[in-house]
Amino acid sequence: MTRQAARGGNRMTLMCYTDIHGYGWRHVDLFVHDAQGHELNWVHWQVPADGPDAADRTTAEVEPLLRRISAWRHDVSASGMDYWTADVAWEEA
User: Fold this and answer.
1) What would the 3-class secondary structure string for the chain be?
2) What pLDDT is attached to residue 92?
3) Which long-range contacts (CB under 8 A, 24 or more apart) does 47-55 make?
4) Which is the most buried residue in 57, 78, 80, 89, by most CB within 10 A?
5) Quick one: average pLDDT of 3-19?
6) Which neighbouring-strand residues pair with 30?
7) For 11, left (φ over 0), alpha (ψ -120 to 50), or beta?
8) What percent of the chain has pLDDT over 90?
9) What whole-number distance in Å separates Cα of residue 60 and Cα of residue 49?
10) Angle at the Cα of 57 (from 92 to 79), degrees rounded to 5?
């Protein structure tokens, strides 16, 4: 069983990217937003490769109680960078 992202109507999303700019820092972001969509907080961790598969594998190691509750949604930034977002929630321990 999972509980929704956070209390009070807040929601959490993961975001992962492709490193088309050559920064050499692949990572996943975890964002918390309020019910109106305002960003409240975020944290990130490194991943060994770009894209959702690497994000899922590493997130399972870094935050084993965090569960993806939606499919990854693909988009492309204004600079041409692929990125994906997914809804997540904490699993009840």
Assistant:
1) CECCCCHHHCEEEEEEECCCCCCCCCEEEEEEECCCCCEEEEEEEECCCCCHHHHHHHHHHHCCCEEECCCCEEEECCCCCEEEEEEEEEECC
2) 79
3) 47/16, 50/16, 50/17, 50/18, 50/19, 50/26, 50/82, 51/16, 51/18, 51/82, 51/84, 52/16, 52/84, 52/86, 54/16, 54/26, 55/14, 55/16, 55/28, 55/84
4) 89
5) 78
6) 14, 43
7) beta
8) 76
9) 15
10) 110
CA dist 81 and 65 (Å) reads 29
The encoded tokens of residue 83 equal 């990125």
Q: Which two tokens stand for residue 43?
A: 């944290």
- Per the CB < 8 A criterion, the answer to whether 40 and 33 are in contact is yes
CA-to-CA distance for 58 and 15, rounded, in angstroms? 13
Q: Which amino acid is at 38?
A: H
What is the distance between the alpha carbons of residues 79 and 68, in angstroms, rounded to a whole number? 27
